[in-house]
Amino acid sequence: DTGVSQDPRHKITKRGQNVTFRCDPISEHNRLYWYRQTLGQGPEFLTYFQNEAQLEKSRLLSDRFSAERPKGSFSTLEIQRTEQGDSAMYLCASSLAGTGPYEQYFGPGTRLTVT
Amino acid sequence: AQSVAQPEDQVNVAEGNPLTVKCTYSVSGNPYLFWYVQYPNRGLQFLLKYITGDNLVKGSYGFEAEFNKSQTSFHLKKPSALVSDSALYFCAVRDIEGGATNKLIFGTGTLLAVQP
To answer: Closest Cα to residue A37, out of B60, B64, B38?
Structure first.
């Protein structure tokens, strides 16, 4: 079990550019979550997949954000036309589906800096 | 709306002393509560959870948490703090109003500083 991995760990981009992040969940986990964390705050939910279906999106997820999980395994989060307010840590988490409220396991995060 | 509150931005404790990191919650229905720890430039690590049963929950690295329904609290505790426990601690509650996503609502975090 290698845990949840995210790539890249750090990304610096200029305002207006597009960026894409990747998340590889724990292999047997079919639930995948994206959160955003800004300095001094706890993570805030962005979106959720069960297998390949995107079942919920937060109002925080503007039209510039899109997420996919094409084969129910890894996921990508793309931000188009980045703004300085997008600077944050983007966290991916995965968990088992089922009847229990299973804990989520987090990756190391991708820190985005928009200049 | 569901929420969690961590009233202390920072907790300072001497190594070897007991520590408590406070969390209160506001949910409709039975809460599912979690504690996570975050080290610098790292993701969150799961420590423990309360779903049902015993009010005292034991977790990783010697941490435990006490669920108190009447006070709507879920405080994190450890009998003897280590310098290596110094980190940012987050309390979270499962969002049960948003369908079956199991997404978590986090507090703002408490920085634990353990002095040698």
So the answer is: B38
